[in-house]
Structure formats: C-alpha cells, structure tokens
Amino acid sequence: MTDAPLQTVTNAARLLKAFLTREESLGVSELARRLGLGKSAVHRLLTTLATEGLVEQDPATGGYRLGLVVFELGEAVRVHMDLHAAAGSVLAHLREETGESAQVGMLDGHDVVYVDRLESSHALRLFTETGRRVPVHCTSSGKVLMAFASEPVRERFLATASLTRHTPQTITDPDEMRRALGTVRARGWADAVDERELGIASLAAPIRDRHGAVVAAIGIGAPVSRFRAMPRKRLARVVVEAGEAVSRRLGWSEDVMSLRKES
Amino acid sequence: MTDAPLQTVTNAARLLKAFLTREESLGVSELARRLGLGKSAVHRLLTTLATEGLVEQDPATGGYRLGLVVFELGEAVRVHMDLHAAAGSVLAHLREETGESAQVGMLDGHDVVYVDRLESSHALRLFTETGRRVPVHCTSSGKVLMAFASEPVRERFLATASLTRHTPQTITDPDEMRRALGTVRARGWADAVDERELGIASLAAPIRDRHGAVVAAIGIGAPVSRFRAMPRKRLARVVVEAGEAVSRRLGWSEDVMSLRKES
DNA sequence: GCCGTCGTTCCGTAAACCGGAACGCGCTGT
DNA sequence: ACAGCGCGTTCCGGTTTACGGAACGACGGC
Predict the structure, then answer these.
(1) Pairing status of strand A200-208 against strand B64-66
(2) CB < 7 Å to strand D — which of 30-49 in chain B?
(3) pLDDT digits over A98-140, tens only?
C-alpha cells in the first residue's frame, strides 16, 4: 500500500472501467482522449487485453468492447456474494408482498452497488440494473448502510463525501444527515422520497452477516404515487422482516444480540 | 496484434483469471506460485488492482478476492449481449415446455460459455452457473456452434483442439466429429448423451443474429433418465423453435434465407 | 519456543513501456 | 476526383519502471 501503484496496470484498470458507461464499443482514439493517454499506449493496452480475452475487437467497426472473460469474472464474484444465494427467494417474496421492484445493495466507496434485483410487474416501474451504482446520501439503501456502518466510517463519509443536491428534497447538510441516520438506526429502516430523483421513492432495511455487521441493504423502490398509497407501517415491517430473513440465512442469530423487540 | 503484449498487463490479466477457479480468496504466495512470478510482483499487482477496486483484501485473512468493480464490469457486458434481453422469455417458455434446465451458450475460444440460464424445477437437475465454461466437442451447444461456424473456423478447431475423452461416448476422432457436425448442420439441432459426463444429456439449436450468422446456441440439459423418456422429435422441434424465436428477436428474418422447410 | 509460512518492504539494475511521428485506409464535403 | 480529416495501426528511441531477491515482523502449529 505504501508502494507506488503500477502505472501500466492502473491504466489498464482505468481502461476497463471506461466501459462502465455501457457504450456499445469504444475506439482507440476516443479512449485515449478520455484517459489522457497516447493513442499508441491505449492501442497496446487493448491488444494485450484482447489476447487475454478481457476485451474484444468488433471486426466491423474496429472499435473495442469488453470480452466474455470479464463476464465470467463478474459471475465468479457473484457466486461469492453469499447474498445472491441468501437473498434470492426473499427478494421474490418481497416483490410478491409489495408488488414493487426489490433489490439488494452493498456499499462500495461512496456509492451503493445493486448486486441483486427483481423487477416490479407493474408497467410503470423503476429501471435499475444490477451492477449499477447510485449515491449513498439520497437513497434508502445508502442511508441504511451508512446508519449502521461503524462510527469512524460514517464520520469519514460525512466529512469527505459531497452531499450533492439532486432534488429539492436531497439532504445536503452533514448535520441534518447525521440526525437522519440516527433516526434510521433507531427505527431499523430508511426511506427516501423524491431525494434522488423526483417521482421515485424507496424503503430499505439492513442485512447482517453472521457477526452482526451490516453488509448490505434490502429494499423496494416504486413510483412516489404508488408508494404514497401503501401503508408505510406495514411496508416497513415487510422490508425489515425481509432483511432479517436474509440475515438469518447468512448465519446471523438475533438472540446473541441482546435485547431487540420483535413486532 | 503484431506488437509484443505488455507483460505487466498480461500478468494482471492472468492474475484476475486465477480467480475463475471460484476460490473464496487467494493469498499472495499462492498466486505467485500459480503464476510463476515473484511474491513482490504479485503483491504490487494486487495492491494496484485494489486501489482500482478490481480486487479487495480480506482484512481477516490477508488474502485477496475479486472486487465489486469486476462485478459491475460483468454486468456491463451482460447488457450488451442482446441475447440476454432476447432470450429471457424464450428461456422461460422453453423450461416450461420441457420442465428441464434451459441455457444459452456462446463460443469463446475452444470453450462454450453459458451466458444465460434457467434451472429446472425438478429436484434432480443439472448444476451449471452462468459464466461457466464447458468444452465444445462434447456438448450439444458446442456442437451446434461448431457445426454452423464458418468453414475455416471449424477446420481450425478440428485441427487444433484436443478432443479430450471425458466418457466412453465422447467423440474424439476429428473425422467422426466432422461427420457428426455435418448431421447437425443438416437437421438443424444437436444432442449429446453421456458425452461430457455420464448421466447427463442435452439438446441444442442455433441462434442467429440479424445477418444470419450463428452467434449462440439455445438448449436444454437433463438427466439421461428423463431425457430418454421424452419424445426426441417433439423435443427437438421445441428447442429449434426456441432458437428461431430468439433469432427473430435479434432481427433475423428467415425469409431472406431462401428455402427452409418449416414444420 | 522454534520453525515454516504468511503478507509486506526495500533496493539496484535490466528491461519494459510511453510518446511522438508516420502509414494506410475509409469517409465527407467540396 | 481529390483533398482533408479521423480512424486504427506500426515503428523506434530514451527514460522511466517494474522485476527479483533478500530481509522483516507477525502469526500459528508441531
């Protein structure tokens, strides 16, 4: 860690991440511009990555795109997220109960990454794919993850993260956020209405691993119109119970955690 | 391509691929041994990749594992496989019709990669995850992909691939394989019974893109016992029709392809 | 309490990678 | 038709850079 990072490898990593924009394929010159590198360097990186199967060249356009090996690696990661196994049927149950899209998110840096997801059956539904990042401070999942993070992590987040305003409802003041997170911690769930984008709302609860640490959040997202029509109390209970169900599958037993009132 | 590959990047790529074995986490020394590199080199690679989020260190064991960014990248690849969108409901229909696990596979090198999959509802079912590689020469999907590949690709495969024997039924002779592929091409589907592993059987048909090129195969896999009990003719028709349904969604119109007899 | 092994750090040197320029190609607009 | 542009690709020299080997502190087991 004290070592200077390998610049070539760093460049290769950044190159791969450039494809996170989900563009169909990217050209050498375009990538060189975005990465601030020479064309030849990018070309060499690409051909190298291509021989390893991490990227592949579109014979028609000459552009490059991510290769199947990357897909394989992604699936390998998914397998080790015990969450995927533990959350599967719970997500299905949650969607059935609420009729809305249900998802599981994990914290990574200053973002939440959705690692699993089931879509609502409604025609009007939230569009979010797995693997997408969303901000922490204006989503219910993010607030849950922050509320239950260790205190140093939380304070570091409040100190360094920019609480960017997305809507008039977005919480942008660190102190207000601190208070909001306290509430979340106290009642065991978080919601977010119109905070990230006008018209969408979500509600989430924590998922704990076998040691009791909150490693992920499970929740539902819906259009504000439908969200408002649902009895908030029942909804929160359903989501919290879903979180507890997944936690139990991960080996967490709420007995060890002294006094917690069950509904 | 004529350039010498960047060795550092190659090492980084190989390092990532080492995680395809799906081990929970790997240590510096272990990786150094597998890759034939020095410990310090591996350590530097890992710390570099870690700062980019491609790998992460388990604070408890000190070992490393793939990071969430890799998962994100994998999902980004999935999106661009139009197949995922096109095949979804067809896979569901196929599983419903047959009651068996249904999957979509693509060719990559000398392997077939399953890019999409739905599991059978039977208690006894094939266990294969998406992102897994299987050999070409002893699977129905593989035979379909080879049978409909361009002639140079096919011949190159027959010349260079080692038709490894997995069971007594595995086709290991290039000439016999050539004949088998001819049959597949003629009738439009392939099967494989006890060829990869004793007790499992599969049947697959081609998926064509808008230009008519066979880019993937769709098929079902089942225990040989159940497979034998199904009327082969009907099963083949169902699978072939599933392939045609996906192909149509990919923009392929069978009209342009002159004379093809529909059932 | 002693090895063996782990992850990590340091350092000198040889090899590897970056940048810049040039090439061939397919466009587009004149 | 032709010139101009942008593309992906190639080549080559100079300097940076990444490799290997050895040493360190910590952990854990016979």
Answers:
(1) unpaired
(2) 37-41, 44-45
(3) 877 888 888 877 788 887 777 665 544 555 555 567 888 888 9
